[in-house]
Amino acid sequence: MSPCIGEIMARVAFLSEYIGRVTFIRTDNMPAVTGISNKMYELLFQRPLLSLEIKSADNVSSLLSAEQGATLFLTPVLREDIMPKAEGMICELKDKKVTLQKVKKWDEIELVAVRIQVKPVCIGRIKTIEKRHLGEGVEVTVERAVRCSIS
Questions:
Q1: Of the chain's two ends, which shows fewer C-beta atoms within 10 Å, N or C?
Q2: What radius of gyration do the chain's Cα atoms show?
Q3: Which of 8-12, 64-68, 73-77, 107-111 has the highest mean pLDDT?
């Protein structure tokens, strides 16, 4: 065993005598889905799986490159108002379907929509934000607390 590992183990053993839990902060880069309704955000805390239909150009753009199993950051904070330290839910992308919808009002309009099914993982806080041009999505670096019990 190298001296570094032995020293780390000794410090963890010392800490475990005085504290029962240690919290590590982990950061991950992920696309952000911004401006979801407060009602849907609250449902994320209650359900193990939730389906959402996303029509916002920024959010659709963020989701197009996301693969099944990727992590997403969902927040009710609008794109224009999002700042570091804003909180949201880190979710795992379980399913994604991109559809083309036709809407008739005065003229016929086609919209790209993305229907996603997400599994809430934990709450996170934004550390850094990369806002691209309008319609190109938002990428965030999110901090999440990882707790560990020491026995």
A1: C
A2: 20
A3: 73-77
Quickly state the pLDDT bin for 34 (edges 50, 70, 90): very high
- Per DSSP, what are the bridge partners of residue 103? 109
Nearest residue to 121 via CA among 21, 66, 50, 54:
50
Give the residue among 135, 144, 138, 136 at the shortest CA–CA distance from 91.
144
CA–CA dist 64, 66 (Å, integer) = 6
Domain count, the chain: 1
Say which residue the tokens 């963890």 belong to: 12
Tell me if 54 is assigned to some domain.
yes
**Would 14 be classed as within a structural domain?**
no
Task: State the residue range of the domain holding 81.
Answer: 25-149
pLDDT, mean of residues 17-35 = 74
